[in-house]
Design brief:
heterotrimer; A mainly alpha (279); B alpha/beta (277); C mainly alpha (260); A: 279 residues; mainly alpha; MetI-like fold; globular; C: 260 residues; 2 domains
Amino acid sequence: MTTEAVRRGSSAARPGVLPVVRRRLPSNRLIIAGLRGAAGIVAFLLVWQVGVALHLPVLAKIPTPLDVAAAARQLLLEPKYYVDALVSFERVGAGFLIAQLLGIPLGLLMGWKLAFRSLTFPVFEVLRPIPPLAWVPLAIVFWPTPESSITFVIFLGAFFTVVINTLAGVRALDERYVRAAISLGATPATVFRCIILPGALPSIFTGMTVGMGITWSVLVAAEIIAGRNGLGYMTWEAYVGGAFPTIIVGMISIGLAGYASSAVVRIVAARAMPWAKRF
Amino acid sequence: MAVALARGALSLRGVGKVYDPGGLNVAAVEDWTLDIAPGEFVAVVGPSGCGKTTLLNGIAGFDPISAGEIVLDGETIASARRPALPGADRVVVFQNGALFPWKTVLDNVAYGPIVQRLKPRGQAREAALALLERVGLSDVADAYPAALSSGVQRRVEIVRALINDPRVLLLDEPFRALDALSKSVMHEQVLELYDATHKTVFFITHDLDEAIFLADRVVVSTTRPARVKQVLRVDLPRPRSRALIASEAFVDLKRRVAGAVHEEAQRAFALGERELA
Amino acid sequence: MKPARIQSVSLGALGFCGFVAAWWLLVHFEVWRFAKLPDPLSVVREWTSRNPQYGVSLFTPVYYQDIWASTVRVLIAFVLATVLGVPLGILLGWNRTAREFLFPLLELIRPIPPLAWVPLAILMLSGQQSAMIFLTWIAAFFATVLNTMLGVTSIDESYLRAAYSLGARKTDALWTVIVPGALPYVFTGLQIGMGVAWFSLVAGEMIAGETGLGYLILNSYVQLQTATIVIGMVTLGFVGFLSSAIIRWAGRRLMAWQSH
């Protein structure tokens, strides 16, 4: 087999044009991967269904996938489900947003000014290991309404993450960018706005993505402990009320909601940072 | 005529490499033919991204070749049907250094014999230490690579390769990241090792001075797809001394090599090839 | 100590004292709703008293029993998560077939917050202890698997090629290159896992526990013992910090080759 039959890219006919090496992904590879992934999930569902039917140790008391599907079909017809979902989204949104509004400036300042960081970091590091949920009782005592205490706890969940990531993002910035700006005559304000802020943006968005995941986790427990509605509370209610398949519907809903929220953050991030490398 | 014990005769016959056959074909290497005698030091130069590393990967066994064959000491080790397997008979020294960061220098050098189960651990480490002593690196034997300068790291990597008594030593621009001073020291080290062991060496580089100074023959590669453009014999006496660099013969060789490379570089530039680091 | 270091340490101390002072002032002067919170002095007094008003202090056995109960749960869950998660992560990173079969399933289950498993965990595993350990385990497990997998796929290909070029076989490469090479990422994953383990444990204890620091906090709340709430929180923070520090220390020792 010779390579005579192999042609170079069409750019050979047009000097000066970048040869575009378009790698067409072999389609069989993707199909195989997709089928295998699907097979894994199907196998999981089968084991689950059969395991419950056979009363295997851990699985004996839980509903089957078919039960869950039936419960889901029913639940999706009830308006209460959507109200619960909306309530949960609102709580997550509020807590998350406040965390960003307070956390990003704080993180930027801590990263930028050493004196400020030395002042605040110890207090911050002492408070950070306390799990957000440990704050629930104190929050309930302190805040006027259960709603505000839930939002506070959710805020805490995202807050520490976004500060830490923002702080790290600023500190990781190559000193040379700042120096280049200053040597070109930039004022501190300009340096902050044009170098530090965009430079820290990738880390800020990482903090947002991770923080978003944490907020949903916190929300579930916060609703169980202190709430009267929402997806987390709905899941708990189902348990207390013996409607077991609904538990799993609730879990899946929360998972989907969390995933969707993270996806939104990722999309916003991609648009805010057109210069960033695609992964 | 050929002594039966001569090892390291490497023959590349019509070697070709195409990426994505059946898709938008990009030929990296085309019809490369070269015969390397046992113990010969061959340097390959050419524009960036022209396919030299692809060729080396084919010889080393990291990537299969699409056409032709690679023959080592009479045995076909690679063809379009049978990809070569990587092995200690064709050890590679990498461009950016691949000393295992989690092992000491000594354990790095002893790695080959240990992992090939040629020697038990203790003996392998003794042999490694002995070799390090011979090249004057025994004082860094217990250091981790991160603590060493790039030049020392490269030397260790070459020793790690040589301890396995390979038939062919494959070097992929090993000194590219070094400054000129370190490089000149490395050249002397390499020549010392070469004179002592007389391995077959396949050496890729950008540095034309380096290629001529070290090699028996310099092969100029065309721009992508890589073909043998020109082969120049370096008739300078061994052991090579730095004084040779100013000699007429050296300057003449440099002129000829540079001319050929420059032609290809211009062609590559005109076709819009960017520097692929 | 260098002057810069002295400055940052003293600033830190100043910040900390400022925080405590502000806390005390806000409670003492009943600013807004801060009157409802315990003031720092009463917390410290309670914590260090031999005869605490609410029965929990450095001198009461129940304090240490709660710490122990929580620690044991986290320890068991964490060890299980590591023992199961690291090998699985390595498998998923190393073997494409395994990854294609299992990764989609993993990614489907992962978004479900660990705490959403609470009711299901209680159903699946009879006994509160196992349910709580399960919750803690699942959080740490995903963090460990993901970070380990990331570690394996991030290894520079040159190291693997060098190993093969030196005569290693696939299993050799696994043990001599992949495992040590992925170790830094594995330890990051372990630290994150430890963090989320405490996070989940507290929730589990609050919802379904009868002992432990999470339970202590919730119970103190129910009994309106606000000072004890803070004692519990601070203890939690401290123990959590300590466990992460231990992992970091272990990592530094195991990965002595890293130049810092």
